[in-house]
Amino acid sequence: MASHTQDVHAQPAAPLPLEGVTVVAVEQAVSAPFATRQLADLGARVVKVERPDGGDFARGYDTAAHGLASHFVWANRGKESLALDLKDPRGLEVLHGLLAGADVFVQNLAQGAAARLGLDSAALCARYPRLVAVDVSGYGPEGPYAHKRAYDMLVQCEAGLVSVTGTPERPVKAGIPAADIAAAMYAFSGVLAALLRRGVTGRGGRVEVSMLDALAEWMGHPLHHTMHGGEQPARTGLAHAVIAPYDAYATADGDRVLLSVQNDREWRRLTERVLERPELADDPAYATNAARTRGREKTDAVVAEALGRLHAAEAVRRLEAAGIACARLNSVAQLAHHPQLAARDRWREVGSPAGPLRALLPPIGLPGGAAPRMGAVPALGEHTDALLRALGMSGAQIATLRRDGVIA
């Protein structure tokens, strides 16, 4: 039998699903850029419009990625950078030249700024009926919070995420920009839904996403638990509020292993095969999850004593052999070298102004299709001249705009 690579009848790879879609984004920070990066990975052409005087302020957050900002590298690969002053009428005219041929527009300017420029979704959809126009905001376009500043950690606090994260003694924010990511992923899926609808109706339409709405949706479990049960789930660190044992335990070599016992059958297996304390399976103080949770300190002490005698690798081996869910408590550096990511060939290199950088493939897999388009991270204004020439501008016109600070 011929190998797959030798099969002359093999079907060509399907194109990326957003091939031929053009996105124009007036974006900054994380929420909108991370949404449009998903679109770029799936084949869309994304033109990122930035201020000439420094561009997206996320470019200056840090210099950890070989001199570039780690947030910016993460959220902006595969885009074309156009450095354009939208407060100058000539700059706004350039933007409308792009929008006339665009499929999607995304913006997350401060509340009211897009409307002052005539770039809010209502105005743009009236002018360009086939355009999908996305407004990403902190708190939505109306209401008492509409004009509040909405940085990620502030929204985490307003959405109650911080109140359920941390230890009993101290609430903490999530270690990633959860509100930004939540809004980004709803904006991404909103664009896909609106493009599907346009395929039926021929018209684009408005998409509105707020960081608070997005994160409030992600708070569904504690929210429903509190509203309908009358009590907010307690902060329990790495433990689970209503299941025991479910926590991370130190091992003899200084690592920590997290395990989760989901039912009393698993507890029996844990006592017999890992703890080597089979008598605890029927002990009324431990036999049921309710009893183990009531006596959480005693339960945790028994598990901690047993795992504390084992190295992490041996603890994981025994837990897996017993059918107990478990995980190593990895650092970020360990994630970067995770054996599962390596085994599945999840790493690629992308170009950047600082040279090649490692990056993960996007989580959406499309087997049988073209590989995700993991383009380079752009320098500020890297594509300005090419984009303006494509709009019909002469070299002299471009030089004038650059001289006047309208472009960079």
Task: Itemize the secondary structure elements and their pairings.
Elements: E1 22-26, H1 31-41, E2 45-50, H2 70-75, E3 79-83, H3 89-99, E4 104-107, H4 113-116, H5 121-127, E5 132-137, H6 152-158, H7 178-201, E6 205-210, H8 211-218, H9 220-229, E7 246-250, E8 256-260, H10 264-273, H11 289-294, H12 296-307, H13 312-321, E9 325-328, H14 332-336, H15 339-343, E10 347-350, E11 357-360, H16 384-390, H17 395-403
Parallel strand pairs: 1-2, 1-4, 2-3, 4-5, 5-6
Antiparallel strand pairs: 7-8, 8-9, 10-11
Helix pairs in contact: 1-7, 7-8
Characterise this structure.
The protein is an alpha/beta fold and 408 residues long. Helices cover 37% and strands 13% of the residues. It has 17 helices and eleven strands. The strands form three sheets. It has a six-stranded parallel β-sheet with strand order 3-2-1-4-5-6, sandwiched between helices. α2 links the parallel β2 and β3. α1 crosses α7 and α7 (178-201) packs across α8. Mean pLDDT is 96; it is low at 1-6.
How far is the first residue's CA from the last residue's CA? 58 Å
Computed structural class: alpha/beta
The rough form would be described as elongated
How much β-strand is present in the residues? 5-15%
What integer is the average pLDDT?
96
Mind describing the biggest β-sheet? 6 strands, parallel
Number of DSSP-assigned strands: 11
Could you tell me the radius of gyration in angstroms? 26 Å
- Strand order in space, largest sheet: 3-2-1-4-5-6
Unreliable runs: 1-6
The number of distinct helices, counting runs of at least 4 residues, comes to 17
Fraction of residues in H or I helices? 25-40%
